[in-house]
TrEMBL record:
Database matches in InterPro entries: DUF6069 (IPR045713)
Transmembrane segments: 22-45, 65-87, 99-117, 123-144
Top-level taxon in the UniProt lineage: Bacteria
Keywords attached to this entry: Membrane, Transmembrane, Transmembrane helix
Protein name, as recorded: Uncharacterized protein
Amino acid sequence: MSVTTPQTQAQRTESGLLSTRPVWLVGILATLAGAVVTEAFALVTRAAGVPMEAASPGATEAAEIPVGGFFGGVVFWSVAGIVLAVVLARWAKRPARTFTVTTVALTALSLAGPAVAPHTATSTQIVLAASHVVAAAVVVPLLARRLSHVPR
């Protein structure tokens, strides 16, 4: 005789640092972590000899990206991600999934900027694009994990 037991999915009961803090606070912590990691990445590439000069569309020449520029850029753009996460936590049916899909799409879209930067060395364009991915690889999973604990 055999016994069949139904497969049930246990509800998450994890209670870690991320799951118990407000979304905005996790966003700030994720932003700081992402900014530090991205700036460290930029410093390593700068030390390896990659020229940190880039131009905006319409510019006639490239300008130097200062030390701390990557940190500031991550902080600036992550504020939009934090606002998005807070809004999705409040109103989205599946906030973690919606946040992840949206931010991955926005990260992919952000790669166009470095690709079309005029008067910018190819090595710099690659580093700029990679820095977008580095920042997203740190910030997005931390916020998405927090959003996965939003009760519905």
